[in-house]
From TrEMBL:
Details of cofactor binding: Binds 1 divalent metal cation per subunit.
Cofactors named for this entry: a divalent metal cation; Mn(2+); Zn(2+); Co(2+)
UniProt cross-references to InterPro entries, sorted A to Z: Aldolase_TIM (IPR013785), Ribul_P_3_epim (IPR026019), Ribul_P_3_epim-like (IPR000056), RibuloseP-bd_barrel (IPR011060)
PANTHER family assigned: RIBULOSE-5-PHOSPHATE-3-EPIMERASE
GO CC annotations on file: cytoplasm
Annotated family: Belongs to the ribulose-phosphate 3-epimerase family.
Bilayer-spanning residue ranges: none
Name this protein carries in UniProt: Ribulose-phosphate 3-epimerase
Keyword Transmembrane helix attributed: no
Signal peptide: none
Length: 219
């Protein structure tokens, strides 16, 4: 699978989201962090903002739901037109049903795991998902330090995905930068979320190309 970069608008100016999308025409996705102040100790945006953003950009939206009741909310993001909707394994009470509803609404279905959540219990769900997201920080905030402790799990996740045919994308999110992206690519990630490393750069589009080149060298 070719390397894909998904810049996180969490690090952009929330009053200028359309401009933030336009600043990265070379992004494969726009990563949208939905936080509810319950699953994580931070509050960001929800469905109305996603609906507006869908009208403002043709870049597909990669919605990462860090919310307590994803079973209730996730299908609506897919129905609204998000290209990908990711729910957290720690929060979902009926993940199989919810993942199937996401797919039925025409979006790619993602399952996210926090740093301390093991991947092995979810092996049987690989057929239900299009992407597995391994958090490389504790979710909730941009600009945190990359957690190397997740790298062995990333390698095990790559082996599991490959043993099931290799179609599931493997995404990393948190602390991904020019310093850390090569480690992630080497361990088997193919979709890279980067917030501060892209929107904190003087030229966000150029930052994406630099990240892409580094990841491609190691994948
Ligand atoms: C954190 C979010 C991330 C965040 C990443 O909980 O899920 O998507 O925006 O930001 P950086 O790349 O700055 O760590
Ligand atoms: Zn995220």
């Amino acid at each position: 699978m070719a390397v894909q970069i998904s810049p996180s608008i969490l690090s952009a100016d929330f009053a200028r989201l359309a401009e933030a999308a336009a600043a990265v025409p070379n992004a494969d996705w726009l990563h949208v962090d939905v936080m509810d102040n319950h699953f994580v100790p931070n509050l960001t945006l929800g469905l109305p903002v996603v609906e507006s953003l869908l009208k403002a950009t043709s870049t597909p939206l990669d919605c990462h739901l860090m919310i307590e009741d994803p079973d209730r909310w996730a299908p609506a993001y897919a129905e609204a037109g998000a290209g990908s909707v990711t729910i957290h394994a720690e929060a979902a009470k009926a993940p199989v049903r919810t993942l199937r509803q996401i797919r039925a609404a025409g979006a790619r279905a993602g399952l996210a795991l926090n740093p301390a959540t093991p991947v092995e219990p979810y092996e049987d769900l690989l057929g239900e998902i299009d992407m597995l997201l391994l958090m490389t920080v504790e979710p909730g905030f941009g600009g945190q330090k990359f957690l190397d402790v997740v790298l062995p799990k990333l390698r095990r996740a790559r082996a599991l995905v490959d043993s099931h045919g290799g179609q599931v994308w493997l995404q990393v999110d948190g602390g991904v930068s020019a310093e850390t992206i090569e480690r992630c690519a080497e361990a088997g990630a193919d979709v890279f979320v980067a917030g501060s490393a892209v929107y904190g750069a003087e030229d966000p589009a150029r930052a994406i190309e630099e990240l892409r080149t580094l990841a491609e060298k190691k994948s």
